[in-house]
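As noted in the main text, all predictions were made from sequence alone. Below is one such record, for Integrase catalytic domain-containing protein.
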Amino acid sequence: MKREVAEYVALCDVCQRVKAEHQKPAGLLPPLKIPEWKWEEIGMDFIVGLPRTQSGFDSIWVVVDRLTKVAHFIPVKTTYSGARLAELYISRIVCLHGVPKKIVSDRATQFTSHFWKRLHESMDTRLNFSSAYHPQTDGQTERTNQILEDMLRACAIQYGTSWDKSLPYAEFSYNNSYQASIKMSPFQALYGRRCRTPLHWDQPGEKQLFGPEIIEDAECQVRMILENLRIAQTRQKSYADHRRRDLEFAMGDYVYLKVSPIRGLRRFKVKGKLAPLSGVHDVFHVSQLKKCLRVPEEQLQVDELNVQDDHYIEYPVQILETAERTTRNKVIKMCKVKWSHHTAEEATWEREDNLRVDYPELFASQS
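Prediction:
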């Protein structure tokens, strides 16, 4: 009996929809493939909602190399068109590092626009978008955003809203900071030596490398970075999977889709079928899905209940008392009315002129 009750509750459609889950989040961590060379694969994202500076900037475009971790922080405006963003991309990224093979980003409107797709199609660059409501796909760029926001908050305390003037120094500091995943700074990973800073922290000397030695040294650096990244990815995956559970679906399985991340007001036409997911991409991370234990065809179909807004029509049946209410410049006649389906104790005071217009039969019966 107890087992049958537990099975019935587990298959209950209402319980599956509304009950909170107390299990680990679904979906193990599948790390992205490590790039083979510098600036072949990059990640990008926008930090929006910043205080507007005197130059009109209110956002930051963050671009990160997925191999060396070198980042560029570009101040932008939310009103920039796709053509303006393309100009910045060419001048700040392509002119310095060449055309990448792959770009990882979220599904922001700037990255999913027709112009942006055609631009990278012409340059033979593949666009990889993260799953809907799953920013962890490009965790490296999200983590870079957190570090940059912390640095800007520290600068804002001293410099106020002029954060765009501090942005080049934040980029320089980030690119010369030690990265645990590659066991060196992004600058050293990109150029093969440590940067000589204005503070002369270490004053590294120039390496006297010629001919094949330069190529051999660069290849050695990249091999070391790749090995360090593989070790770091394995370590990160073990940490992440410890707090997650594996969940797989097969073709034809029925699932529940979590739509709670959808924010904002949705407007629909008065007539027609509501489609709250019409503007959402049809690919979802496994953490946004929940397996349906009972096939919809096997569920009991309950007849729909047609409930009317008003179960009865309310109308006045008797005037219990009359009175006059004096205002500043006129006298208003009031009537204490007993309504149908209500007792005399629930009678209300109404204006006589309104009652004569809406219920003339009430006064005809009294006369």
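The beta strands are 41-47, 59-65, 71-76, 102-105, 126-129, 255-257, 289-291, 316-326, 331-339, 348-351. The first strand starts at residue 41 and ends at 47. These features were considered when defining construct boundaries for the mutagenesis experiments described in Section 2.9.
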